[in-house]
Amino acid sequence: MNFLTDLRLKKWQLILFFAFSSTLTFSQQTNSGEFWDNVRFGGGIGLGFGNNYFNGSIAPSAIYQVSERFAAGVQLNFSYATFNDNKLTAYGGSLISLYNIIPAIQLSGELEQLRINRTTSFSDGDFKDNYWSPGLYLGAGYVNRNFTVGLKYNVLHDDKSIYSDALIPFVRIYF
User: Fold this and answer.
1) Which has more pLDDT, 109 or 44?
2) Domains and CATH numbers, the chain
3) Which of 10, 25, 85, 132 has CA atoms 20 to 30 A from the CA of 101?
4) Measured between alpha carbons, how far is residue 43 from residues 73, 80, 128 in Å?
5) Cα–Cα distance, 65 to 175 (Å, whole number)
């Protein structure tokens, strides 16, 4: 066997070893029911309207309670907004991590990726803009049972963000 063939074989052996090990670990958790006992569902919903303005959003999520203080999970995001003849649709997902430094105070990190479809109307026609918008939010909140209220800051905020400010209030509910 030559060196490259031997290296490829060792690479595949290593991949199969880790895949088999993680499958055994995961199957031990799911067989005992512990995994789903530690999953919580929740998310957020938003609605705003005014004179020639509408904004609606929904963000379902699921987190796995790794320990009493730490949880991690995923979230789907969808927002729709209109202002006069301008329209915005945003959809995507997030990875979320939550850490309670004490039972009432929670720190959070969230990596978000949104697909933005924006139509801006001008007197001489419409301008359409479609792009991906990343966000990295670091936040802190007050926790009361399943309810958290706080502020998060988007360290990647720029002029293409759908949010007017990098500092955003949030409310999270998990059951």
Assistant:
1) 109
2) 37-161 (2.40.160.20)
3) 25
4) 11, 17, 30
5) 12
Instruction: Report the DSSP beta bridge partners of residue 94.
Output: 75, 112
Cβ contacts of 127-133, under 8 Å, gap ≥ 24: 131/160, 133/90, 133/160, 133/161, 133/162
pTM of structure: 0.76
Q: Above 70 in pLDDT, residue 54?
A: yes
The answer to whether 154 and 168 are in contact (CB under 8 A) is yes
Q: Is 43 or 25 the better-scoring residue by pLDDT?
A: 43
What are the pLDDT digits (tens) for 58-94? 999 999 999 999 999 999 999 999 999 899 999 999 9
Whose tokens are 């609605």? That residue is 47
Report the C-alpha gap between 40 and 110 in whole angstroms.
17
Q: What is the DSSP string of the chain?
A: --HHHHHHHHHHHHHHHHHHHHHHHHHHHHHTTHHHHTEEEEEEEEEEEETTEEEEEEEEEEEEE-SSSEEEEEEEEEEEEEETTEEEEEEEEEEEEEEEEETTEEEEEEEEEEEEEEEEEETTEEEEEEEEEEEEEEEEEEEETTEEEEEEEETT--TTSSSSSSEEEEEEEE-
